[in-house]
Specification:
The complex is a heterodimer of chains A (116) and B (110). Chain A has 116 residues and is mainly beta. Chain A is built from no helices and eleven strands. The chains are: A mainly beta (116), B mainly beta (110).
């Protein structure tokens, strides 16, 4: 199993540009999560999908951020326009619920975004 | 989800057991205790989880007190590769998102 795949691994862009981060979840997992990690705020959930449907997007910072999951094997997180404060590591995770009703989440390697 | 409290940092000698404590005094009866770790520059990695009973897998053991107000993650023979930030998280069934705190930074010393 290849695990959760994210691309690109590193992205450097200039303020005002559009940024698209991509994620391929583990095959068979029906939930997908986007997290952001910064030194100041730690790891925080942005949005998660269940069966390709957005369930909770309360962590999305503002309208500049949008996420889609057009099918079970692909998701994107888009920032438009990007700002320097968006610089962070963005993680994607996927999961399949356990019989107990909780999740074991499997994280990708992350995308390190730098907005100049 | 119940709040968890962990020490900011710990050291452990290579080859010795690493015992990482977590306090979750307000945990409810149906909340599970999950442990993840994050090695530098990598995504978080699931380690183990439990409800009431002690659990063991190939990575670690989880000891939960009888009153469930605290737990300890045990890495039986720590190696340098176990140097990471360890997160203890209380999770309710049906609550899909994880809320990460600050975790414990474990430094395994040669």
């Amino acid at each position: 199993d290849a695990g959760v795949i994210q691309s690109p691994r590193h992205e450097v862009t200039e303020m005002g540009q559009e940024v698209t981060l991509r994620c391929k979840p583990i095959s068979g997992h029906n939930s997908l999560f986007w997290y952001r990690q910064t030194m100041m705020r730690g790891l925080e959930l942005l949005i998660y999908f269940n069966n390709n449907v957005p369930i909770d997007d309360s962590g999305m910072p503002e309208d500049r951020f949008s996420a889609k999951m057009p099918n079970a094997s692909f998701s994107t997180l888009k920032i438009q326009p990007s700002e320097p404060r968006d610089s962070a590591v963005y993680f994607c995770a996927s999961s399949q619920p356990t019989p107990s009703g909780t999740d074991t989440q499997y994280f990708g390697p992350g995308t390190r975004l730098t907005v100049l | 989800d119940a709040k968890t409290t962990q020490p900011t940092s710990m050291d452990c000698a290579e080859g010795r057991a690493a015992n990482l404590p977590c306090n979750h005094s307000t945990i409810s009866g149906n909340e599970y205790v999950y442990w993840y770790r994050q090695i530098h520059s990598q995504g978080p990695q699931y380690i183990i989880h439990g409800l009431k009973n002690n659990e063991t897998n190939e990575m670690a053991s989880l000891i939960i007190t009888e009153d469930r107000k605290s737990s300890t993650l045990i890495l039986p023979h720590a190696t340098l590769r176990d140097t990471a930030v360890y997160y203890c998280i209380a999770v309710k069934p049906g609550r899909r998102a994880l809320t990460f705190g600050s975790g414990t930074r474990l430094q395994v010393q040669p």
